[in-house]
Amino acid sequence: VEFLYCDLASMKSIRQFVQQFRAKDCPLHVLVNNAGVMLVPERKTEDGFEEHFGLNYLGHFLLTNLLLDTLKQSGTHSHNARIITVSSATHYVGKLHLNDLQSRCSYSPHGAYAQSKLALVLFTYRLQHLLTANGSHVTANVVDPGVVNTELYKHVFWVVKVVKWMTAWLFFKTPEEGASTTIYAAVSPEMEGAGGCYLYNEERTKSADVAYDEELQRRLWTESCKMVGIFDEAS
């Protein structure tokens, strides 16, 4: 295991990380987009993005795009490179506000978090469409890890924290259990060549209906390219 620093809330840090990684001239067979914050108070990343959207979504969007060439070079017909993005069941209640992706009009921690997780599903489906169209040996899937007992809940109300403390052993997954579907997506032979899937408990399931809106996927992708400053090849 080798550690390379990357702050997903900083576009500069992401670009520096990619430069460091490329300098090693290593193949890249699996990319897991797993960083995230939840229900944080209204605040911005160093680039001025609302934190949920900037870190949970845009950070991974930029990182993935900057590593795509390496992933394409690493995948083969029999062993595709794999991109796994961790979303959440919260995406089912999320709404994508294309005219206000930064939640400037009215900020809600729950709404901003849900929007970022819906954006990750839309991104994954659009990415798989583009990979297929280019004939790339890379697959992209999105995972719902379930309700996992981690520090992600540190910004919830104290009442919820007490309930979590009392019931976590019964209703929450351990971090190891929460990681199982991500690991399944990353290494399972059953997922070889399979892309554009939403996975929960190591099974393919249906995501929110709005996530299958191809026009919404395309518009989000185009807007995301503008926000992070990369060329939209799909256009």
Automatic annotation (TrEMBL):
Gene Ontology terms: cellular component: extracellular region; lipid droplet
Pathway where this protein functions: Protein modification; protein glycosylation
Keywords: Lipid droplet, NAD, NADP, Oxidoreductase, Secreted
Subcellular location field: Lipid droplet; Secreted
Family: Belongs to the short-chain dehydrogenases/reductases (SDR) family.
PANTHER family: PHOSPHATIDYLINOSITOL-GLYCAN BIOSYNTHESIS CLASS F PROTEIN (PTHR43157:SF31), PHOSPHATIDYLINOSITOL-GLYCAN BIOSYNTHESIS CLASS F PROTEIN-RELATED (PTHR43157)
UniProt protein name: Polyprenol dehydrogenase
Gene (name only): Dhrsx
